[in-house]
Amino acid sequence: SGSLPEQWSALLNLERVRLGRNRLSQSLPPAWSALSRLRLFHAWDNRLSGPLPAAWSVLSAMTSLDLMVRG
Q: Is this prediction's pTM over 0.85?
């Protein structure tokens, strides 16, 4: 449980993040827009709130994004 750490934006080689069912809350960090190699971000069945940060529009390597609440 908790929030997604903004500090992960320093992990510039990060390509995949799988955090389904972790009781994460708050919003997605805009600072993660620095993760230019991020291809996959799965955080389904969490308690995230707010819109997808506009800053994430630069994540051109992203091919899979899953934020669905599956109930």
A: yes
